[in-house]
Design a protein that fits this description.
8-stranded mixed β-sheet; 4-stranded antiparallel β-sheet; cell membrane; membrane; cell inner membrane; nucleotide-binding
Length: 330
């Protein structure tokens, strides 16, 4: 983590709902999180936990029937919820970059890769187009794309799915943003390329102070990449803290369950422990603690009262009956 620990992004009470005929249902339900300059925060959880909606909410990219109805998103002290569309356009792609899980959301099929990457630079900086194309080629090389100058002339359909994702990642790195929000960007990549991109992201954070929110379901990636981890379940952050502390000695039963069911984090020959049941739908979450129906440690109070945050040194968790720390062996 960068020595400058100044808070870059601070989110408080973020609540994003999706409107339906029978009500407004929260996909993100009172999320608090922060990230400092040069820090990598891993946001983890099962599919449907609200991770991606959180990422889209941070950059104000929620479209109807979704709506951010509550909370603050302060970027360098500026509340993004109060920002004008013009101000948000100036920030996105320059000071804040988002890498989408689907690269087709990023790339225009009728423009060459070079045109798109150069435009991402020229929109925010005054320089000759030739210089912008040179920077684009360097960015492609950083993410492992061979013959980058030739590739700039090609169109997205001439790239494989994994190569398109690398182009999207390279585009996000172009302007050395203050904050990158990455939504499972390495899912379609092989292990070698994934490791290269994780190295480049860590290097960017270390050398330029760029902060990263890395959204993923892969705890092994978070263990390698992140400084801190935030575990999300049913739209809420249930445990957060330094990555080594949380992964080595988790307190929330859900965090323990994720670790016990991860093949890469269980000792060789060890038994995987599946979390029983499924995450609740946003329109049918139980009262009290949302993890209660799946939790082996639930108490009667869990059905009545949503557990408040408990602070344990550098760690925070929400549980009435927290698990005793268990040591995991990678």
């Amino acid at each position: 983590m960068n020595a400058d620990a100044q808070t870059l992004l601070e989110v408080r009470g973020l609540r994003t709902v999706f409107h339906a005929l029978d009500g407004a249902w929260p996909a993100v339900d009172g999320v608090d999180l922060s990230v400092s300059r040069g820090e990598v925060l891993g946001l983890v959880g099962e599919s449907g936990s609200g991770k991606s909606v959180t990422g889209f909410s941070l950059v104000q990219l929620i479209d109807p029937p979704g709506e951010i109805i509550q909370g603050s998103v302060a970027f360098k002290g500026e509340d993004l919820r109060a920002a004008t569309p013009e101000r948000l356009r100036a920030l996105r792609g320059d000071r804040i970059a988002m890498i989408f899980q689907d690269p087709l959301m990023t790339l225009n099929p009728v423009l060459s890769v070079g045109e798109q990457m150069a435009e991402a630079i020229l929109e925010h900086r005054a320089m000759p187009r030739a210089e912008a194309l040179k920077l684009a080629a360097q960015a492609l090389a950083r993410v492992g794309i061979p013959s980058p100058e030739a590739r700039l002339k090609q169109f997205p359909h001439e790239f494989s799915g994994g190569m398109r994702q690398r182009v999207a990642i390279a585009t996000a790195l172009l302007n050395e943003p203050d904050l990158i929000i990455a939504d499972e960007p390495t899912t379609a990549l092989d292990v070698t390329i994934q490791s290269q991109i994780l190295y480049e992201v860590q290097k960017l954070a270390r050398e330029t102070g760029t902060a990263v929110i890395w959204i993923t379901h892969d705890l092994a990636v978070v263990a390698e990449l992140a400084d801190r981890i935030a575990v999300m379940y049913a739209g809420r952050i249930v445990e957060t803290g330094p990555v080594d502390l949380v992964l080595d000695a988790p307190r929330h039963p859900y965090t323990q369950g994720l670790l016990g069911s991860s093949a890469t984090l269980v000792a060789p020959g060890g038994r995987l422990n599946q979390i029983e049941g499924m995450a609740p739908r946003i329109d049918s979450r139980p009262s009290g603690c949302p993890f209660r129906p799946r939790c082996p440690r639930s108490l009667p109070v869990c059905a009545e009262i949503d557990p408040p945050p408990t602070f344990d040194g550098a760690r925070q968790f929400r549980c009435h009956n927290p698990a005793q720390p268990m040591v995991t062996t990678p």
